Structure formats: C-alpha cells, structure tokens
Amino acid sequence: MLKVKKKAKPEKIILAEDIYILWQDGHESHISYFDLRDACPCASCVDELSGEKTLDSNTIPKDIRPEKSEYVGNYALRVYWSDKHDTGIFHYKVLRDFDKST
Ligand SMILES: [Zn+2]
C-alpha cells in the first residue's frame, strides 16, 4: 500500500486527454475528466448537510472537459468545465486519493 504524504502538492498539472498530475514527491496521477466531474464536491452536486451526491451522472456530457483550471490558494484546484459548471473546487488530497480508488 502506497503511503500518501499529507503535504503532497502538485508540481505540474497538465490538461490533455485526461488530467495528468505530477506530484512533488514524484507520484503521477491520471484522472479522467468524466470521473472528476462526476466527483464534483460543490454544493449543487453534493448535499452539504447529508453529504449525499445530488448530481445525476447521466446529465454529464460524455465528452466533458475542462475549459480551464486555476489554483485555489495552495490547497486546491478549481476547474471550469465545458458544461459551464465552475463551482467545483478539488482539494489536492481528493485528487491525490483519486487514483487509489480506480
Ligand atoms: Zn459541482
């Protein structure tokens, strides 16, 4: 089992066929756009109180892609999606943990 450093931060993020992240500790992650969009943690995709996902995965375009992304502080990445959804902020920890579940 790979040990995840709590302070792992991206060295480089490249938006290509998927999201490629090179972490400062040398680990590399590939995350599909659809999967990441589907995991959007914002208030319109997840019920803030119950933590339950309210986003219907079927409403996500299969060819979803980010139009741009920006760093939020030094802890997260904000993605502007091609379906005009831009309220999702993905913490690095979530991104880092993402490819462990696939
Ligand atoms: Zn969302």
TrEMBL record:
User: What Pfam families does this protein map onto?
Assistant: GBBH-like_N
Q: Does the keyword Iron apply?
A: yes
Give the record's keywords alphabetically: Iron, Metal-binding
One GO molecular function term of this record is: metal ion binding
Annotated Gamma-butyrobetaine hydroxylase-like N-terminal domain ranges read 19-96
The identity of this protein, by name, is Gamma-butyrobetaine hydroxylase-like N-terminal domain-containing protein
Q: Which organism is it from?
A: marine metagenome
